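Dear H.,

Thanks for agreeing to be a second pair of eyes. The structure we're designing against is below in token form, covering all 471 positions.
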């Protein structure tokens, strides 16, 4: 054995303990750590782009990384990171994720690990948490991008089935043109159209309801009536990224009765609101969708990367993703045979962090995260609306605040970007830029389990401090 490998084998307990110490240092200081480190700290230092011949050993390598790059790590796991839709990691989920790396299971139905059984149980518990019926099967994938990919891929197979075509065998060209209808599709779904050979040009944007990001069902019906016979996928939003708008799924289901289409619901973070009786009605009807996306590394607060794809069409899913190899189990139609249900042949044990979190905190713990984040988002929105320098671009529907600078007489985009850059340098709160109905805006998305009212007040102080000086 190589001497460094032998050294690290002998020092394994010390290596794990040293890693724990570094992690503890990071987590104990996360509330004081800048949400956006300086740009120069985000750069690689000289020599670290080169491969060493002999190596340092694990403890020296850990220290090398921490001493050089600790300042370049953001507090994205902390309570005031409101950028994108980024959750943290609850203690139970983090502990489980460490174990995932230590036990290093390939979570297939391979008859040599309990991983597949725990994944199936986690999916079932998540269905209970979110009020989804037993008719759905589910599996873990890397994120909403891959969950949307899987849902649309199964939909593509369903469209072929309606026309006597096996797209998985014959290719998408045998199906011919497909139309994909949506009002506010996430960029990951558009990427999936490219990867699946359907093409980005297949996407047709349907009008929104006035003053909303939700699809206008009347406009959708007009388009469906004018395109009868064209294979159709409808991508519904259960929580848009700017305003957490929900499409009226019950109206979409009524349209599906008259104009058959595949209904995919992108509920990457909005779907988790179903665990709260206060907000579950916004997802009414999603239990009849064909496929659903839910992220775990957003509002469920497990570490990156983790999402769940749900579908009511297990046989079609296996037609798309089945894997034939002499050394692997043949395809069999069962909900835990993940080798034949997801794009990956090799799969990390992603289910364990969520299984552990559900075991640790239960339904009430998940509900608390959702309801507390919504309450705090409403507080932030109320305070921003009352501030002299800001105005809301849309009402606070759930856990995202979409706002803009007030009374900007110059270049609104440049002013917005300067404000965000100053906010980043101040390091207290992280927000991200967006556009809402063509207007340059700013987003604050609250999904972290640690966020408290004091974090909202600290964020507001920083936002007000970073406002541009009056002309």
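And this is the sequence the design step returned. I haven't edited it by hand at all.
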């Amino acid at each position: 054995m190589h001497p460094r490998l032998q050294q690290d084998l002998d020092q394994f307990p010390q290596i794990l303990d040293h890693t724990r110490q570094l992690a503890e240092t990071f987590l104990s200081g996360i509330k004081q750590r800048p949400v956006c480190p300086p740009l120069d700290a985000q750069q690689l230092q000289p020599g670290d782009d080169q491969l060493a011949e002999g190596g340092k050993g694990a403890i020296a390598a850990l220290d090398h990384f921490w001493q050089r790059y600790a300042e370049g790590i953001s507090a994205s796991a902390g309570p005031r990171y409101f950028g994108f839709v980024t959750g943290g990691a609850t203690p139970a989920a983090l502990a489980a994720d460490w174990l995932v790396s230590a036990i290093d299971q390939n979570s297939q139905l391979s008859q040599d690990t309990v991983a597949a059984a725990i994944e199936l149980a986690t999916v079932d518990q998540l269905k209970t948490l979110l009020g989804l019926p037993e008719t759905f099967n589910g599996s873990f994938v890397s994120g909403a991008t891959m969950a949307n990919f899987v849902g649309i891929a199964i939909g593509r197979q369903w469209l072929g089935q309606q026309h006597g075509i096996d797209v998985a065998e014959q290719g998408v060209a045998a199906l011919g043109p497909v139309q994909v209808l949506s009002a506010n599709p996430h960029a990951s779904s558009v990427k999936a159209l490219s990867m699946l050979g359907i093409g980005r040009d297949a996407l047709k944007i349907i009008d929104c309801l006035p003053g909303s990001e939700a699809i206008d069902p009347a406009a959708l019906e007009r388009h469906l009536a004018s395109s009868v016979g064209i294979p159709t996928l409808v991508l519904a939003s259960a929580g848009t990224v700017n305003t957490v708008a929900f499409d009226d799924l019950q109206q979409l289901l009524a349209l599906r009765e008259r104009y058959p289409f595949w209904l995919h619901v992108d509920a990457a973070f909005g779907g988790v609101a179903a665990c709260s009786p206060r907000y579950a009605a916004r997802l009414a009807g999603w239990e009849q969708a064909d496929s659903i996306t839910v992220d775990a590394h957003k509002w469920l607060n497990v570490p990156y990367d983790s999402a769940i794809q749900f579908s009511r069409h297990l046989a079609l899913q296996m037609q798309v993703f089945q894997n034939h190899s002499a050394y692997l189990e043949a395809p069999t139609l069962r909900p835990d045979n993940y080798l034949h249900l997801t794009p990956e042949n090799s799969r990390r044990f992603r289910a364990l962090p969520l299984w552990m979190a559900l075991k640790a905190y239960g339904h009430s713990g998940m509900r608390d995260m959702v309801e507390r984040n919504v309450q705090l988002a409403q507080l932030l929105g109320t305070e921003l609306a009352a501030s002299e320098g800001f105005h809301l671009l849309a009402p606070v529907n759930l856990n995202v605040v979409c706002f803009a600078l007030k009374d900007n007489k110059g270049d609104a985009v440049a002013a917005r970007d300067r404000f965000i850059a100053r906010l980043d340098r101040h390091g207290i709160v992280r927000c991200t830029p967006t556009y809402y109905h063509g207007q340059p805006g700013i987003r604050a998305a609250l999904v972290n389990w640690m966020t408290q009212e004091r974090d909202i007040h600290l964020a507001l102080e920083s936002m007000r401090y970073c406002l541009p000086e009056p002309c």
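Two observations from my side: The chain has a mean pLDDT of 96. The chain has 14 helices and eleven strands.

Warmly,
E.
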